[in-house]
Amino acid sequence: MSQPFRLNKVGLINRNKKISFTFNGKKLFGYEGDTIASALIANGIHLVGRSFKYHRPRGFFGAGVEEPNAKLQVEFNGHSEPNVNATEMELVEGLSATSQNCWPSVNFDIGAINNFLKMFFPAGFYYKTFMWPKSFWYKIYEPFIRKAAGLGVASIEKDKERYEHKFEYCDLLVTGSGPSGLASAYAAAKNGAKVILAEDKPRFGGTLLTDDVSIDNLSGKDWAEKIITELKSMPNVTVKNRSQVFGYYDHNMLVMFERVSDHLEKKSKFTPRQRLWYIRAKETILSTGSIERPIVFGNNDTPGIFLSAAAKEYMKVYGVLVGKKPLIFTNNDSAYETALEFKKNNVEPIILDTREEHSSELIDEAKSKGIDIRFSHGVIVANGYKKVKSAKIGKLNKDKNSFEKIETVDCDCICVSGFWTPSVHLASQSGNKLKYEEKIDAFIPDKKKQHETSVGAANGSFTLEESLKHGFENGSNLSAKIKETKTEISIPNVNEKKYGAHDKFWCMPLPKNENPKRFVDFQNDVSVSDIEIALREGYRSIEHVKRYTTLGMATDQGRTSNLNGLQLVSNIENKIVPEVGHTTFRPPFTPITIGTIVGREVGMEYMPTRKTPMHEWHEKNNAVFVDAGAWKRPRYYKQGNETLFEASKREAKNVRENVGICDVTTLGKIDIKGPDAAEFLNRVYTNAWMKLPVGKARYGLMLREDGIVMDDGTTTRISENHYHMTTTTAQAANVLSHLEYYLQIVWPELNVNVVSTTEQWAGAAIAGPKSRDMLSKLYPDLEVSNEALPFMGYKEAEFFGVPSRIFRISFSGELAYEINIKSDHGLFMWEKMMEVGKEFGNQPYGTEALSTLRIEMGHVAGPELDGRTIPSDVSLNGLVSKKKDFIGKNSLGREAFNVESRQKIVGLIPIDRKSSIPEGSHIVQDQNAKLPNPKLGHVSSSCWSVENNNPFSLAIMKDGKNMIGKKFFAVSPLKNKSIEVEVISSHYVDPEGKRVRS
Amino acid sequence: MLYIKCPYCGLRAQKEFSYGGDATVKRPNINEEVSSEDWDNFVYMRKSPRGKHIELWQHIAGCRQWIKVQRDTATHEIFQTAKVTEEIR
Ligand SMILES: [Zn+2]
Questions:
Q1: Residue A153, pLDDT score
Q2: Distance of CA B64 from the midpoint of ligand 1 (Å)
Q3: Residue A50, CB-side half-sphere exposure with 13 Å CA sphere
Q4: Residue B73 in domain
Q5: pLDDT of residue A543
Q6: Which of A115, A476, A485, A710 could form a disulfide with A187 if both were Cys (CB 3.0 to 4.6 A apart)?
Q7: Subunit contact A745:B56, Cβ cutoff 8 A
Q8: Phi and psi (nearest 5°) for A962?
Q9: By the 8 A CB rule, do A100 and A106 touch?
Q10: Cβ B1–A250 below 8 Å, yes or no?
Q11: Helix axes A528-536, A542-549, angle to 10 degrees
């Protein structure tokens, strides 16, 4: 197998290692060190995809991150990835790449008919064409656009790869290892600063790898290698290749995307595929270089048309010719280096230079080598459909708006250079406003907003000498400021070719009666005429023009198109470019994988799992768990083929008839200590707390300052200055912050300390008429009578030798106790309870039965305390003290809180006593009323009342108790149900609360 | 992600903190009469300045102290942080 476009012996690839791969099913090979792009070009393949809108054939245009066209679907290491940039992805054995956005194949693409129907696809075509009729959008337009335009296909398989996040801190982050970046990193490292040097490409050195220069008598490449080797040996320096700093965030935090192992044939199980670095840098050097911009001409998107520097990079780095009959089309001297490189490899280029005949070091060298140079010339239109075959070229008149002579020349590639655009993305992201630099027709960073310094080409300095000097100085000064030491470094001698002035020329005129497409933005298919239309239609702001035409909105962020687009707008509008302004640069600079963003936070690691000490027992006993925040709680304990409904009914019934135990470890617990603890509780809770005796618990209600109920729970006075507060599972963290807020900020004079003890205690509730009998067996030495341990009583006693706390409190409405024991003994306690409880018919019950028990008792919980209810809405106004002040009290007087018709808690039962009422149902008068049907309230909690053996619900309803006895409909369009219901009291079982006191 | 200097722990990443709103709002004294207007101002009315703003943050994943942070709401620049008992001017 021969590679017709591979040069002998040239380049930095490893010719000893062949790598086979496929492209659109065709078997090919390349070498280690190739990108997919360089390997394909070596094989003479240029047609890689179809354009987004017109499905025009597209080839490679760049050699790196600037590439707008060559996005492929790539399969490797067992996964399939869309939109992979072929100019960046390194070749690995067995890789298979396919073209995107073409059907049935890249060579014959049905969508290409769009190219002949382009009158239907002008600027804003999405807005215009697909707007009407509305009903067509979902059924016809959208599926069509999806199928015809979609880029790659995302895999629906689970991503088996490993991704990591890393946090790093440094004195100086250097983004880019070109000459200025290397110099900065080196100088800073010599001052002892902690330096991170990041390079996007696999090879360090940037333009030093391709430019014909020497530094201290070493070639650019060798000098780069020397510096990198030294940096790598220094303990204070981290050097990273394949790492793109893509985002500049607040307070000098930069985010970097490292491609760790995609290029490796084999890797260990725990090697991540990609790694996301969060880097907090004291100072940042932006040495991101510059990107060549094209000159706009007819059919400038034909495969075989390259940026001139990319053509040079393919030769010098990969040993690959982009063509054997090149046309070099330029407005500046840099493309002459590409021409000379062709010549060196025995290929005869023709240079078309838009400038008038003149001389410079490079022009003279090209002339002396006998290269055909045609001044005042340019490419008018490229000929050829799937590959450039020839070009119509023209000699420009003095004003460069018409032609003196037009001819056609044969060629197989066109290398175009319209001068250089500094990569200012990161500077802009940092908040730097950028300024227009007339000298280079481009934007460069202006005043700093953060600790960033742009050096070298990124700052508009295009000579090596200046870049190095700039780099050494800034690296040295910035690090000296941090480290307070300074090591003198002598700036090396540089040998480089002097460039002449460039021509401020960016777009070829068209001869009369010719109208080929001239593309400004390749990836989004935006042409000169699209931008003209947008301006004709009245779009003025560059941000509006961008959105209407989609200029610069593709994944390449307009790297090669933004400035030409601005030039065009400023020409038409007769404004200068800085007046038009530029659009905003946003992270990420390059597309990154979702996997990298997610990192290790997948599956079990998505969030922490909190398990109670009894979890193991629950698992062994067929508990079905439910998530309560991060906690896992048993929802029910499945016996045989029981359903959730059957099991929860059984468990709840057993509590009402015998006794049950429930794991309540997850309740929030807060220890409150200090001489002012009672006063503090008195301010936090709505009810009175000053007279609670030691050894007693009290139910408390706390509000937000706006009067809305925040949380409820019991608090127990353990000793004189020591209280134990419980909160709901969901509000535990919020309540602690709330208490800390008042203690630290509002009432710092109160001598009180609070600390969470949720994790320290395991808790079990024993509930049911037989719970006292069971308790006395658990504590044989303790007096547990109603007199000795009354409702809301508290005792400390040893549980089989282990200290424990006994609270006589109830959530189920039954006679009940809660036992707390140090977490370590939680499982022991639970197992002991199961053992001792046998004779009383004890069964464990889960959250579903717990809900049933509290709902039929009319106890409110999260669904009622939903951030909209005040105490009187949920029948808790008895707990609101009129005598004392507390958090939120003043808000309770608000007018809206006191209107009679306010929605308040009621109970609902279905008229048929059979149909369960879905939670979330709306309560309406007339189920058949015209929409919108006036809503009178909603169903907050539903259960099957085990006491009355029929469904029962709590609802928050207009006019509250005044509605008792009336009939309504509970409608749930979601469940497609409408149930006739009767309003009753919310206290369905034991309304007097006799049982808890029995 | 902001970099916030906790007066107790030093510079820490924003993800260790939670936001607590305007630090200049003063709660009316407990057990004292307050007009509806003053109360409503305290509960609901907040300035939303573009520029310097003194606000509360709590170092929830650290020392759990509430702190004062003077921040530019437009640029996120942090000028000063302080304990809640200290003044920011
Ligand atoms: Zn702290």
A1: 81
A2: 6
A3: 25
A4: yes
A5: 87
A6: A476
A7: yes
A8: -65, -15
A9: no
A10: yes
A11: 120
Residue A134 banded pLDDT, cuts 50, 70, 90 = low
- Domain containing residue B12: CATH number: 3.30.2270.10
Distance CA A465, CA A211 (A): 13
Query: Looking up tokens 């932006």, which residue turns up?
Result: A286
Chain B nearest-CA residue for A255: B1
For chain A, what is the mean pLDDT?
A: 93
Q: How many CB pairs under 8 A join A and B?
A: 56
As a whole number of angstroms, the distance between CA A378 and CA A368 comes to 22
Q: Which of B30, B57, B73, B79 is the best residue to mutate to test the A interface, defined by the most A CB atoms within 10 Å of its own CB?
A: B30
Write the pLDDT tens digit of every residue in A355-370.
999 999 999 999 999 9
The answer to whether residue B32 sits within a structural domain is no
Number of domains in chain B: 1
pTM, two decimals, is: 0.90
What is the domain extent for residue B79?
3-25+39-83
**What pLDDT, on the 0 to 100 scale, is given for residue A55?**
84
Q: Give percent of chain A with pLDDT exceeding 90.
A: 85
Contacts of A896 in chain B (CB under 8 A): none
**Residue B55 pLDDT level (bands cut at 50, 70, 90):** very high
- Give the pLDDT of residue B18: 97
Q: Buried (b) or exposed (e) across A581-590, using 16+ Cβ within 10 A?
A: bbbebebbbb
Crossing angle between the packed helical segments A334-344 and A361-368, to the nearest 10 degrees: 20
State in Å: Cα A114 to ligand 1 middle: 61
Q: Residues of B with CB below 8 A from A895's CB?
A: none
Two tokens, residue A756: 């969470």
pLDDT tens for residues A821-867?
Answer: 999 999 999 999 999 999 999 999 999 999 999 999 999 999 999 99
| Residue A541 pLDDT | 85
Interface check for A601 against chain B (CB to CB < 8 A): the answer is no
Structural domains of chain A, with CATH = 163-290+422-495 (3.50.50.60), 606-666+760-857 (3.30.1360.120), 667-757+866-888 (3.30.70.1400), 898-998 (2.40.30.110)
> Does the beta carbon of B15 lie under 8 angstroms from any beta carbon of chain A?
no
Is the CA virtual torsion A41, A43, A44, A49 positive or negative? negative
Distance CA A150, CA A935 (A): 44
Domain membership flag for residue B75: yes
Q: Considering CB atoms only, which of B36, B43, B84 is closest to A744?
A: B84
The 3-state DSSP composition of chain B as helix, strand, coil percent (nearest 5) reads 10, 35, 50
> Where does the pLDDT of residue A574 fall: very low under 50, low under 70, confident under 90, or very high at 90 and above?
confident
Could you report the per-residue pLDDT of A924-939, keeping only the tens digit for each?
Answer: 999 999 989 999 999 9
Complex ipTM, two decimals?
0.98
Read off the pLDDT of residues A194-207 as tens digits, 9 standing for 90 and up: 999 999 999 999 99
- The Cα of B52 is separated from the nearest Cα of chain A by a number of Å equal to 16
| Sheet strands (E) in A677-760 | 697-703, 709-719, 722-727, 753-756
Chain B nearest-CA residue for A893: B36
Rounded Cα distance, A142 and A124, in Å: 16
A744 → closest Cβ in B34, B65, B75? B65
- For A:730-749, CB contacts with B below 8 A are 733, 737, 740-741, 744-748
Question: Mutate which of B14, B43, B46, B71 to test chain A, going by most A C-beta atoms within 10 A?
Answer: B43
pLDDT for position A139: 63
- Compute, in angstroms, the gap from residue B62 CA to the centroid of ligand 1: 5
Report the pLDDT value the prediction gives residue A854, as an integer from 0 to 100.
96
- Chain B interface test: which of A676, A735, A890 (most B C-beta within 10 Å): A890
Residue A131 pLDDT more than 60?
no
Say yes or no for a CB contact (<8 Å) between A747 and B30.
Answer: yes
Looking at residue A119, what is its pLDDT? Answer: 54
B43, part of any domain: yes
